Task: inverse folding
């Protein structure tokens, strides 16, 4: 069936342009923030900005905002399982120094 | 009578509508692809079995006198690689799942038929890489490819074997992707999730693992290959790398992989137990959700393969606790199958015999897995034959028996022929007896301390090893017999008819063998899964619909 | 006579689907699932990166000094622009604007080629300075800064592996965009059948996404910059 009502939601071009501009600004912020000494915060800030950019790309350029619940769950599942790989592996690396074994 | 037989022979079905080789090699029909897989996987099973035979022959005597230790390393490595990646992982999904899932959901094919064909070609290309590596001299790292031996020091064909597994991994990924999309999007009208056969639920859960886990082993093996080719040092401690990182990445997939193997087998058992008890599965929702739980929890436990590798003891505690949890949904399934039998009208046809074998042997294998989850016991039995026995109980006593159950159950549907029941029952008995004789002694000898992957052992272990090899010989006969009588049935077997088991399910409402397009009209489902109580009404409704 | 939207749609309806809606939803879901596998595929490399950055932080800082931030930032900008033109191109497919779609897809490919060109320049730089893992690896600055050169080599192993895999995906992406550009220019798509354009778009945006993370992780590790 190919009638008007079955057609996908068409997003206005202006929305895409606004998202693009936001991404460019965030990129500039990331670069200039990396010149400022913030210690531990540098990486937190960089990854936070990267995640905001990624979210914008996924929601709007990839239309996830307008997609079905199934698609949204699928994307969240992927992120969750990647997080599991990283987090559970780190439980090993971060806690190795906690146990010190006495020399025999 | 003669006219009926003639009509069966003449009716168009997926097998007879075109006999050319090209029509088989370029098919998009999920049923033909399943048959292509059946042939390839059976061949690989016997290759893996050949290596097993050499291992068991070597272990007849305590001395390492049949082959050198280097050769022995290659034998158990190649046995593992072939059996895990080229037999167990694809078996039920690629052969039975491909054939039956579209029929079960009332569809004309899987969501992506061309990708399905691509899956088979990727499997064949991967298998070719692996076989060529084996013929050219083999690989000796263990199927687990632990670094830095595999990445730096082994001088065998690691890259070729790793590439073969890498390519076959994508075969698995595409099969899983196809199943997930098909089950979500192509169910017939009226077929809600709560009416879906449990075989679909199980394959769906396994497909989730295929899609989420396989890419990780793919990138890991790629890194091993890069390390061998370019000496990059990511896993080599001499260059600052961490071999345990390899193990984390490897087992992140390879543990859930065992659930890729067992879940579809459990799906078969659900179908067989319900049909041969003529009763709905006890606690359908629990069995369905248990499949999903196994898939999810299965991703949380991988480091229980690494308890003695040098990981943090705190991480080990976390993984030990999580490993106990994953046993629970499997136990739920075993209870529910058993409860399904209670007050059922039980028939002892061959598929059901294999199902009984599965329930018992999987329980033993699963319980010994719980022993291994305990840190204290694991430290004692790691790298002994106890572990070998554990995983063979679940993979052979469980998975292979389930595969055989499924083959026997759906053989009439796939081929339109019945196999000879007497010979089938004999084979099932030989498999059961042979299997237990092979692997039960391994629990004992492993607990007593015999290490795995060694071709020489202390003389006090010889009796148990001889028993094990004797069992393997019986098991081999049990495997060969079905090859023979299945082939025999193609020519001389009795015609099966659409529903020889009088089962409830969409796949039994189409002729055997099915026509290429599966259903003349898209079925509309109005009944619950396994509704044996109302089978007469369902049959009538479907007949009227046609 | 130009074929109507409906005729194009019906021509492309595969036999096992009930209607175009089902086919479109199915194919897009399939592409998303494929991207899930790609997330896990790259994810393994990100895991390795995480572990080694935590263990050899100072060596990672030294390694990242050799990265040219401005080239990296330009590449990031190029990919973001390419995502814009790709998204607008998909929109043109949705609104039957064939000519503009072709132009936008060509511009997308050009941005992609700019990215690959700059990457090639960067790779050449690193190669000529022996910053490629293996027996010829050399990193004289390491000792001066009190860092083990072997650990810097691990940084570079991950740099080459991650950006190399990403570049491979870009090359495939450019190929895919070329395919739909040609097919689109020949009028094979319509407002009722543009799933291939949408799905290639999804793949393209995903490749952009990976770079959005690679850039800060590989280029912007520390305030100390000499590139």
Result:
């Amino acid at each position: 069936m190919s009638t008007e009502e079955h057609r996908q939601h068409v997003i206005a071009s202006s929305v895409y342009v606004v998202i693009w501009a936001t991404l460019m600004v965030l990129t500039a912020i990331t670069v200039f923030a990396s010149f400022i000494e913030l210690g531990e915060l540098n990486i937190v800030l960089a990854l936070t900005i990267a995640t905001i950019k990624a979210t914008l790309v996924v929601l709007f350029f990839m239309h996830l905002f307008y997609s079905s619940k199934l698609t949204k769950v699928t994307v969240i599942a992927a992120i969750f399982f990647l997080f599991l790989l990283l987090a559970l592996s780190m439980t090993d690396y971060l806690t190795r120094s906690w146990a010190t074994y006495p020399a025999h | 009578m003669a006219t009926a037989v003639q009509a069966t022979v003449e009716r168009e079905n997926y097998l007879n509508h075109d006999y050319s080789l090209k029509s088989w090699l370029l098919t998009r029909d999920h049923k033909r692809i399943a048959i292509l897989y059946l042939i390839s996987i059976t061949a690989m099973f016997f290759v893996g079995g050949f290596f097993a035979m050499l291992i068991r022959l070597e272990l007849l005597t305590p001395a390492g006198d049949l082959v050198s230790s280097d050769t022995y390393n290659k034998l158990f490595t190649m046995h593992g690689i072939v059996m895990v990646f080229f037999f167990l992982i694809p078996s039920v999904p690629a052969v039975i799942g491909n054939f039956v899932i579209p029929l079960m959901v009332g569809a004309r094919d899987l969501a992506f038929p061309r990708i399905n064909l691509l899956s088979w070609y990727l499997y064949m290309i991967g298998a070719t890489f692996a076989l060529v590596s084996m013929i050219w001299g083999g690989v000796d790292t263990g199927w687990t490819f632990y670094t830095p031996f595999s990445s730096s020091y082994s001088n065998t064909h690691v890259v070729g074997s790793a590439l073969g597994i890498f390519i076959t991994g994508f075969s698995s990924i595409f099969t899983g992707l196809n199943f997930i999309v098909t089950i979500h999007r192509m169910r017939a009208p009226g077929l809600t999730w709560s009416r879906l056969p449990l075989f679909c639920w199980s394959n769906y859960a396994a497909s989730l693992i295929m899609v989420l886990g396989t890419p990780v082993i793919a990138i890991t093996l790629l890194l091993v290959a890069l390390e061998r080719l370019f000496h990059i040092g990511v896993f080599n401690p001499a260059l600052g790398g961490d071999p345990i990182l390899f193990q984390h990445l490897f087992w992140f997939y390879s543990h859930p992989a065992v659930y890729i193997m067992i879940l579809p087998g459990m799906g078969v058992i659900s179908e067989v137990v319900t049909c041969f008890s003529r009763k709905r599965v006890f606690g359908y929702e629990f069995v369905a959700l248990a499949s999903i739980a196994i898939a999810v929890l299965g991703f949380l436990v991988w480091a229980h393969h690494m308890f003695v590798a040098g990981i943090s003891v705190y991480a080990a505690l976390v993984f030990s606790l999580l490993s106990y949890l994953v046993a629970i949904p499997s136990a739920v399934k075993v209870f529910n199958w058993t409860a399904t039998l209670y007050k059922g009208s039980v028939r002892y046809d061959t598929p059901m015999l294999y199902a009984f074998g599965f329930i018992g042997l999987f329980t033993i294998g699963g319980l010994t897995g719980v022993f291994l989850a305990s840190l204290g016991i694991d430290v004692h039995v790691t790298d002994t034959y106890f572990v070998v026995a554990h995983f063979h109980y679940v993979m052979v006593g469980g998975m292979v028996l389930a595969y055989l159950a499924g083959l026997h159950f759906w053989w009439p549907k796939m081929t339109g022929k019945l196999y000879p029941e007497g010979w089938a029952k004999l084979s099932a008995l030989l498999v059961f007896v042979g299997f237990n004789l092979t692997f039960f002694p391994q629990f004992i000898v492993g607990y007593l301390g015999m290490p795995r992957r060694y071709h020489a052992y202390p003389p006090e272990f010889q009796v148990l090893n001889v028993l094990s090899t004797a069992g393997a010989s019986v098991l081999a006969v049990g495997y060969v017999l079905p090859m023979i009588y299945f082939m025999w049935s193609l020519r001389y077997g009795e015609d099966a008819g659409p529903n020889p088991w009088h089962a409830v399910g969409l796949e039994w409402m189409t002729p055997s063998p099915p026509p290429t397009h599966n259903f003349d009209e898209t079925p509309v489902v109005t009944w619950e899964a396994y509704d044996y109580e109302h089978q007469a009404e369902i049959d009538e409704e479907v007949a009227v619909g046609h | 006579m130009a074929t109507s939207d409906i005729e194009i749609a019906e021509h492309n309806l595969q036999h096992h689907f009930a209607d175009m809606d089902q086919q479109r939803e199915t194919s897009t879901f399939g592409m998303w699932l494929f991207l899930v596998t790609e997330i896990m595929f790259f994810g393994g490399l990100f895991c390795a990166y995480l572990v080694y950055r935590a263990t050899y932080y100072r060596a990672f800082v030294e390694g990242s000094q050799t990265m040219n931030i401005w080239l990296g930032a330009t590449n990031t900008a190029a990919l973001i622009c390419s995502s814009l033109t790709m998204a607008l191109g998909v929109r043109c497919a949705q609104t039957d604007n064939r000519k503009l779609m072709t132009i936008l897809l060509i511009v997308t490919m050009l941005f992609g080629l700019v990215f690959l060109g700059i990457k090639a320049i960067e790779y050449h730089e690193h190669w000529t300075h022996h910053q490629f893992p293996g027996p010829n690896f050399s990193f004289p600055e390491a000792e001066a800064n009190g860092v083990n050169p072997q650990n810097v080599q691990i940084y570079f192993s991950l740099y080459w592996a991650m950006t190399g895999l990403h570049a491979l995906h870009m090359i495939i992406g450019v190929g895919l965009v070329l395919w739909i550009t040609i097919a689109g220019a020949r009028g094979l798509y319509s407002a009722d059948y543009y799933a291939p354009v949408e799905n290639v778009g999804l793949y393209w945006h995903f490749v952009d996404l990976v770079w959005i993370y690679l850039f800060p992780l590989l280029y912007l590790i520390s305030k100390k910059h000499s590139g």
